[in-house]
Specification:
The chain has 11 helices and 14 strands. The chain has helices spanning 2-7, 13-60, 76-86, 164-199, 201-212, 231-282, 294-324, 337-354, 373-390, 439-444, 452-462; strands at residues 63-66, 69-72, 90-95, 101-104, 125-132, 135-147, 152-162, 333-336, 358-363, 368-371, 396-406, 409-418, 466-471, 486-493. The strands form 4 sheets. The protein has a 5-stranded antiparallel β-sheet. The longest helix has 52 residues, at 231-282.
């Protein structure tokens, strides 16, 4: 799911910024509208409750005791005045000290027992809401002391008011607030649109610069032309183009070197073929069937040898290109260095037998490293093939695989030792350069390509390995005329995945 989201096509940056800025703003406006609505209700209740209490007190002042009975003298003019002031309908009820109905609307909803006294006013008043005649009403219930010489007690005066005026006031406050906030949102959207357009202008200019550049122009972009947050991206682009330039330069150098190296053997091959044809053409027709063709055979054999060298060079060039660009086909996985070395020894054993070379293989168990099986196979092939080519007849080659601990780190080691001419200490760094061949190597193998050690170095570097060249251990110690031999040791980090 995460991978699918990461691979999904991203839309417009401007649209995303607008959504991320305006959608939360609209949500906040909606939440604020709800808050304003409830605040308006509270404000309306406070204002109208005060007016309702004033009406209740005015009514309470007209409640008295006459001849031992509670009476209420409420003129209709007062009620009409209340209705005119509050823009709502008013209902009232007066209950005596013994709970008897005195005046007003006898079916007005009674005071619930769980309503607490209002702390906002010093009077003994309680406010509650109820439905009366299918209309919501707000009722103030005031306990009013009444007395005369014959009796003393507390009467209950209730005044109810319909909620129309309150709701109208609440709607007015809400609509006024929402209208202003709506205008604010529209203005904010326009400001955000122009601000995003202005802020993204350097990025759009960078896009235009990238689109208008020639394919061969890999110069750096100026990071100071964009915002601070975008500079890491520009610097990463510059770094990528620098690596791309290095890769292209390497490819161009490789093509130039390969063209130069391939031109010579192919030219020789063409010349030899022309000489063979010319020699054959000089033979009379009657003698062509009986002529001793030894000279022609030698030329053809030379052509075959040159062709083999050309094929060998082409294979080495392809391997070098793959190793230089790190084309680890098959991915990185634990690879048995022991198995790779054993397989290569079996593959090239016939070449060693043809030169009567004593080829030995020794391994200390199954040694694993993390790498590409294909590239590691090429590395071992190049090392053993070089050893066979440069070791004289009746020589010795030993290949060993073992583990070596250096400090706290465990390493896998591939070692190939031959009894060939070796490499002088002064040339041991230069042999890793493509197409370089030491003088002793040219004498021992005139048809070499000079790419074997370069391939070994590139593959070893891709696997975090190091190469160590040293003299052979047993050859030439007593006889200076004999070959010293060469030991090539390639040391890799051992695999942690057994």
């Amino acid at each position: 799911m995460i991978r699918h989201f990461a691979m999904a096509r991203l839309g417009s940056l401007r649209s995303q910024l607008m959504r991320w800025l305006l959608v939360p703003l609209l949500i906040l406006v909606a939440l604020d509208a709800v808050s304003v609505y409830y605040n308006a209700l509270e404000v309306a209740d406070i204002a109208y409750d005060r007016s309702l209490l004033a009406s209740t007190r005015a009514l309470a002042e007209r409640v008295s005791v006459v001849n031992g009975h509670v009476v209420a003298d409420v003129p209709y003019v007062a009620l009409d005045s209340f209705e005119t002031d509050t823009l709502g309908r008013i209902y009232y009820k007066v209950t005596g000290v013994k709970g008897e109905f005195v005046s007003g609307y006898d079916d007005l909803p009674p005071l619930p027992p769980d309503v607490k006294r209002s702390e906002a006013y010093p009077a003994l008043v309680r406010f509650y809401q109820a439905d009366y005649h299918n209309q919501p009403v707000r009722i103030a219930a005031l306990h009013q002391p009444v007395y005369d010489d014959s009796m003393r007690g507390i009467a209950l005066i209730q005044v109810g008011e319909t909620m129309d005026a309150r709701r109208g006031m609440t709607r007015k406050i809400l609509f006024d607030t929402m209208w202003r906030q709506g205008v604010l949102v529209v203005v904010a959207a326009l400001l955000v649109w122009f601000a995003v357009r202005f802020v993204l202008r350097p990025l759009m200019q960078l896009r235009s610069d990238v689109e208008s550049r020639a394919p061969t122009d890999l110069s750096d972009f100026d990071p100071d032309r964009v915002h601070k947050e975008m500079r890491p991206l520009v610097l990463a682009m510059n770094g990528y183009m620098e690596r791309l330039q290095t890769l292209i330069t390497g490819q161009r150098r490789f093509i130039a070197d390969a063209s130069h190296q391939l031109r010579t053997p192919l030219t020789v091959l063409k010349t030899q073929a022309e000489l063979a044809l010319r020699e054959f053409d000089r033979t009379p027709d009657r003698l062509r069937a009986h002529q001793d063709l030894r000279a022609l055979r030698e030329l053809v054999e030379s052509i075959a040898g040159t062709t083999d060298s050309t094929v060998h060079l082409a294979n080495r060039l392809l391997t070098l290109a793959r190793a230089e660009h790190g084309a680890a086909e098959g991915g990185i996985a634990p690879v048995s260095l022991t198995g790779a070395a054993r397989q290569v020894a079996l593959e090239l054993a016939q070449h060693a037998v043809a030169k009567h070379i004593d080829l030995s293989f020794d391994a200390a168990g199954d040694v694993l490293i993390d790498g590409s099986p294909l590239l590691l196979h090429e590395l071992v092939v190049n090392l053993l093939d070089n050893a066979i080519r440069y070791t004289p007849a009746h020589g010795k080659i030993g290949m060993r695989v073992f583990e070596q601990r250096i400090g706290d780190d465990l390493h896998a080691v591939l070692e190939v030792e031959d009894s060939g001419p070796g490499i002088p200490a002064a040339d041991r760094e230069r042999v890793f350069a493509p197409f370089y061949r030491a003088p002793a190597a040219q004498l021992a193998n005139p048809h070499g390509a000079g790419l074997g050690m370069s391939i070994v170095r590139d593959i070893a570097s891709a696997h975090r390995g190091e190469i160590i060249l040293s003299d052979g251990a047993n050859e030439g110690a007593d006889n200076p005329d004999r070959h010293h031999g060469l030991i090539v040791k390639v040391r890799f980090p051992a695999s942690s995945r057994k």
